[in-house]
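Appendix C reproduces, verbatim, an entry submitted by the partner laboratory led by Prof. M.T., so that reviewers can inspect both the input and the predicted structure.
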Amino acid sequence: MPRKANPALMKPMTLSATLQAVAGAGPMPRGQVMKKVWEYIKKNKLQNPKNMRNIIADEKLLPLFGGKKEVTMFEMTKLISTHLS
């Protein structure tokens, strides 16, 4: 039996201007936001080659990451959720 999608992940969220610079204009569901952020990270080769779980911030991601130059994937998810309402 297929799993039901979590309705909280499907609800369209409003994106901050900082997040829109990376993910595009909202509103969009949280899952779609994370997908767009990952597309941006992969396109710009921002994963740490020594530890692929770490994301290296460029000028667009730095404000999303609270000024940190490098964050883990899990930390990134938490930091990005502060830019959703």
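The chain has four helices and four strands. Additional entries are available on request from the coordinating office.
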